[in-house]
Every structure is written in structure tokens, then in C-alpha cells.
């Protein structure tokens, strides 16, 4: 019996190929159209669906060659079968309600088939306990053809309809299939995935925000930890994400590695924030990127690229813990006042982009910022616009630029900079002029104080610091000081004369200098 079954399957495949050839000949005018149509019909009849027992085991049957909607009640199958394999089907619409008449049927295997839809028309529960998909698919992204041998990537969609229709399901096995999606069952089942791949993008990724596009397989990781799921090492991601440089993607990366990253990033993700995985970057000592399947699996090291998004979540301070491999941090529209955590926490040292616009930041510790710049090996972007900064540590920034060529892209527009303070203004204008490429929209950096000399919102680069910050002219010249000294001496002489005159008239007493002089000594003889 097995030999007969194998021969029938082989003959059916041969006849299917003959059908395609005959149709092609018809299109090319090689044979008359009526004759070609008759031959195709005969070939399709010869390749009609069959159901036969497997290996002489009357409890296990295989039905092959079906297409379209399948009603297994039409086939003479024993009511006590325990396992049913559906093979080599195309565009199958399988009504699971037709399986309820087989009371002992617990195993359903779909092999090398295209299952367009699994549906239930009926109220009786389907007692399928083990469901297996082997080299099967539900749709083709490029084209769908009844007897197509190659339709591009054959995608299998294990959606909620499939899971919820089999309430008694205990085991789900997926072997060498390319999953476009897989829904988490409400009740724990035994999940086994071997070979093939899983699309790491949502099917409708084009309309989703970027931070929500990548699929979160955290639930599979939790199931693996609790021994409810088995995931082989050869199950790979397939997608192509090219949003940033350097090149990164999840193509041909083991799902296990992605799940491990998912668990770690969710564990260390700050409260109220999102921490999506954006992809990966290749790390190689000689910086020679080997793009390809092997480059991302064996020959090169790789590290995830994680974005922490804490936008408008009422943060008042910087998080002390963020996921490892964070490359972008966004905390716009919050109430953060102090950002020194960035400069003392090593977790922020390798971040490429830090967005802190629309906060309440008032000052930056210059010494900590200076050390932070020296410890970095790559440039980065820092957005501090729409805050409450009156000054920047420009002196420490100039020192860092001088000793190490790190030029961060900084945006500081719409801050109330104090242009009255000349020791800050002179250095601030200098750094905006010398390193204007490092300050985004430097022409829009403006003062805040309003006065005659410092009008509100005046551009810092347009100020004449030589005039505004020139030293004040002295009130007195040197000749004035001499005249004042001479006048003081004359005044003292006049006061002394008046005093001596008063003493002589009142007491007939001569001044002391007169009594001791030659005249006074002569009068004594």
C-alpha cells in the first residue's frame, strides 16, 4: 500500500506539470486550443484528490491533492481515525467543523500545502489536540497560483482565528515554515518551532509608528523560560530595515537572539517608557562590513540598537537605568530640570542621539559635561531647545573641543540666554561662530532679556560684543588727579594759617615752627 500511495502522488505531480506545459503550448499556438483544453481536463481528472492510510495504519490517513474548499465528510474515512495529514493542497479552505464527526481525531498535520483559510461553521468543539504545519503557507506576497511551484516567499499566518477555533489545542508544531505572524494563545500550549523564519515586522508595518513596527516576541521568551515552548536555533528573522547608518537589519538573525534582547530591554526599560528594538549594527575590528547571511550569524559580532522613548510621560529627572545597547534616548515634553545623570552614568556614554527639548532644564554642570565629552569616542546629537537655560558651560566645551575632536550636534534654540553677562556672552558668541556646524540653527539662538541695549529675542550672533561689553571709560584723567592733589595741599595750608592766626590773636602765642626757628631763638636772647 505505501508503494501504491507514493506512485499515485508522483503521477499526480507529473500530471500537474503536464497541465502547465499544455497551457503554455495553448498560449503559444503550438496546439489547437480545444485539444489543449481537453488534455488539461483529462490530466486534472487523473490528478484528482485521494485519501489513503499511512503505512497500512488505518488510524492514520493522508489526503493529498485537494484545492479550494475541502469537506472531508465527502471522503470515505473511518470514523475512528486518530491522525489526519493533508498534503500537497492549494488554496485550501478547510472547514474544521467537518472534523467533528471523527470523534477520535486528535492530530491534524498540514504538509506542503497552501491553506488559505481555516474556519469553523458549527457549534460543536473541534477536539484537535496536536496541530502541525510542515512546509506550508497561507499566502504568497507576489502571486497566488493553483499549481505554482515558486511564488516568492511563502508566508504562513497563524492568526487569532486559527488559535481561537481550536480551544482544546495542546500542541502546536511549526516546521520549516515562514511565519508572517503568530498570535499568542490565551491558554498555554506546547509550542515548537523548527526551521524557517518569522517576520520580525508587523504585517501592516507601513502604517505603524516606527517605534511599534518590530514584533515583540517577549511572550515566546516567557514561554521558553516556563518550558511551554521550544524554539530551534535555526529559526531566523526575516525583514529588511534600513532607517539608520551604519547598516543594520534583523535578516538572518536567530529569533532566540532577538527574544533574549527583548527580555533584557523590557526588564531595564524605564517606567512609562517604550524601548523598541530598531535593529542591529555589525561590529568588526577592521570596520570591513561583510554584508550577507553569514556576516550576521557567524563571522561578525553584532549588537542591538535600542531606542528609549519617554516622550510626554511627566518625567522630572533622567532615568538611572536604561537598556544596554541603547543608541537613542528621547524624553521631550517632560519636566526634567537636571541632566547631570547623563554625564556621570556610563549607560548614556554610547548613545548617539539624546532629545530633551521642551523641558525645564536650567543649568549644566560644566566640569561633568567636560569629562563626558572627553570619555566619548563618537559624536552625538543633543537637543536642548525650548528649555530654561540662561548659560552654557562654553569654557569647558571649548577646552574639550581643543583637546579631543568631539563635536556634538547641539540644538539650544528658544532658551532664555542671559546676554547681559559679558563674560558668558563673549565666549558664547565665539563658540557659535567657530563651531557653527556643531550648533543646529545657530542663527536662531537669541537673547531673552529686554532692555535698550539687549532687545528681547535678539540674535546672539548679531550682537556687537566689542561695543556692548567694552570696558567703561574712567571718570577722571591723570591731570585731574594732580589738580585735586594740589588743591588739597592748598586747602591744608590755608586751614593751618587760619588756625595759627587764631592762636596768636587769642593767646598771643606764636606757631610752633616760629618759636623754634631763627627768629624765635633770637628773641629769647
Key terms:
525 residues; alpha/beta; Leucine-rich repeat, LRR (right-handed beta-alpha superhelix); 4 domains; six-stranded mixed β-sheet; 13 helices; 29% helix; 19% strand; AMIGO; transmembrane
Short summary:
By secondary structure, this protein is an alpha/beta fold.
Give the CATH level 1 class of the largest domain: Alpha Beta
Strand content: 15-25%
Any guess at the CATH architecture of the largest domain? Alpha-Beta Horseshoe
Largest sheet: 8 strands, mixed
Distance between the termini: 170 Å
Number of strands: 21
- Name the strands of the widest sheet in spatial order: 1-2-4-6-8-10-12-14
What is the number of domains? Answer: 4
- 3D shape: rod-shaped
Catalogue the unreliable spans: 1-9, 19-47, 143-149, 203-213, 240-247, 285-299
User: What is the averaged pLDDT score?
Assistant: 76
Helix content: 25-40%
CATH topology of the largest domain: Leucine-rich repeat, LRR (right-handed beta-alpha superhelix)
Structural class by SSE content: alpha/beta
* Radius of gyration from the alpha-carbon trace, in angstroms: 43 Å
Descriptive account of the structure:
There is one protein chain. The protein has 525 residues and is of the alpha/beta class. Helices cover 29% and strands 19% of the residues. The protein has four domains: 1-48; 50-273, Leucine-rich repeat, LRR (right-handed beta-alpha superhelix) (Alpha-Beta Horseshoe), CATH 3.80.10; 336-468, Leucine-rich repeat, LRR (right-handed beta-alpha superhelix) (Alpha-Beta Horseshoe), CATH 3.80.10.10; 478-524. The chain is built from 13 helices and 21 strands. The protein has an eight-stranded mixed beta sheet. Helix 1 packs antiparallel against helix 2, helix 4 (218-225) crosses helix 5 and helix 7 runs parallel beside helix 8 (394-403). The model is unreliable at 1-9, 19-47, 143-149, 203-213, 240-247 and 285-299 (pLDDT under 50). Its main location: membrane. Residues 1-29 form the signal peptide.
Amino acid at each position: 500500500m505505501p508503494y501504491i500511495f507514493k506512485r499515485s502522488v508522483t503521477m499526480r505531480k507529473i500530471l500537474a506539470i503536464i497541465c502547465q506545459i499544455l497551457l503554455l503550448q495553448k498560449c503559444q499556438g503550438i496546439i489547437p486550443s480545444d485539444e489543449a483544453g481537453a488534455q488539461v481536463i483529462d490530466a486534472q481528472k487523473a490528478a484528482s484528490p485521494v485519501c489513503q492510510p499511512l503505512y497500512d495504519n488505518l488510524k492514520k490517513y493522508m489526503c493529498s491533492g485537494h484545492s479550494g474548499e475541502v469537506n472531508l465528510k465527502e471522503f470515505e474515512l473511518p470514523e475512528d481515525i486518530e491522525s489526519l495529514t493533508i498534503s500537497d493542497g492549494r488554496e485550501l479552505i478547510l472547514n474544521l467543523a467537518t472534523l467533528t464527526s471523527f470523534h477520535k481525531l486528535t492530530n491534524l498535520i498540514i504538509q506542503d500545502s497552501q491553506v488559505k483559510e481555516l474556519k469553523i461553521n458549527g457549534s460543536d468543539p473541534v477536539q484537535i489536540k496536536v496541530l502541525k504545519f510542515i512546509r506550508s503557507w497561507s499566502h504568497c506576497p507576489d502571486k497566488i497560483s493553483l499549481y505554482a511551484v515558486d511564488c516568492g516567499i511563502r508566508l504562513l499566518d497563524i492568526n487569532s482565528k486559527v488559535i481561537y477555533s481550536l480551544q482544546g489545542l495542546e500542541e502546536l508544531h511549526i516546521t520549516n515554515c515562514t511565519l508572517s505572524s503568530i498570535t499568542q494563545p490565551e491558554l498555554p500550549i506546547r509550542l515548537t518551532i523548527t526551521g524557517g523564519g518569522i517576520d520580525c515586522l508587523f504585517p501592516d508595518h507601513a502604517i505603524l509608528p516606527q517605534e511599534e513596527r518590530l514584533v515583540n516576541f517577549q511572550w515566546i521568551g516567557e514561554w521558553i523560560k516556563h518550558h511551554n515552548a521550544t524554539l530551534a536555533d535555526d529559526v531566523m528573522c526575516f525583514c529588511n530595515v534600513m532607517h539608520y547608518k551604519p547598516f543594520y537589519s534583523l535578516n538572518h538573525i536567530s529569533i532566540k537572539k532577538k527574544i533574549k534582547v527583548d527580555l533584557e530591554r523590557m526588564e531595564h526599560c524605564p517606567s512609562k517608557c517604550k524601548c523598541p528594538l530598531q535593529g542591529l549594527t555589525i561590529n568588526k575590528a577592521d570596520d570591513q562590513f561583510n554584508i550577507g547571511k553569514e556576516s550576521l550569524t557567524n563571522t561578525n559580532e553584532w549588537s542591538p540598537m535600542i531606542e528609549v522613548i519617554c516622550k510626554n510621560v511627566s518625567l522630572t529627572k533622567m532615568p538611572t537605568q536604561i537598556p544596554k545597547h541603547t543608541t537613542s534616548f528621547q524624553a521631550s515634553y517632560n519636566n526634567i530640570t537636571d541632566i547631570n545623570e547623563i554625564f556621570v552614568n556610563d549607560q548614556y556614554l554610547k548613545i548617539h542621539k539624546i532629545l530633551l527639548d521642551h523641558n525645564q532644564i536650567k543649568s549644566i554642570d560644566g566640569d561633568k559635561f567636560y569629562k563626558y565629552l572627553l570619555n566619548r569616542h563618537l559624536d552625538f546629537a543633543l537637543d536642548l531647545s525650548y528649555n530654561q537655560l540662561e548659560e552654557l558651560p562654553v569654557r569647558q566645551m571649548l577646552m574639550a573641543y581643543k583637546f579631543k575632536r568631539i563635536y556634538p550636534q547641539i540644538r539650544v534654540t528658544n532658551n532664555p540666554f542671559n546676554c547681559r553677562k559679558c563674560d558668558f556672552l563673549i565666549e558664547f558668541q565665539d563658540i557659535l561662530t567657530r563651531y557653527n556646524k556643531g550648533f543646529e540653527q545657530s542663527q536662531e539662538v537669541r537673547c531673552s532679556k529686554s532692555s535698550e541695549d539687549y532687545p528681547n529675542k535678539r540674535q546672539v550672533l548679531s550682537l556687537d560684543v566689542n561695543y556692548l561689553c567694552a570696558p567703561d571709560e574712567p571718570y577722571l584723567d591723570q591731570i585731574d588727579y594732580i589738580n585735586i592733589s594740589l588743591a588739597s595741599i592748598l586747602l591744608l595750608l590755608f586751614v593751618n594759617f587760619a588756625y595759627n592766626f587764631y592762636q596768636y590773636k587769642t593767646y598771643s602765642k606764636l606757631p610752633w615752627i616760629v618759636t623754634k626757628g631763627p627768629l624765635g631763638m633770637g628773641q629769647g636772647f
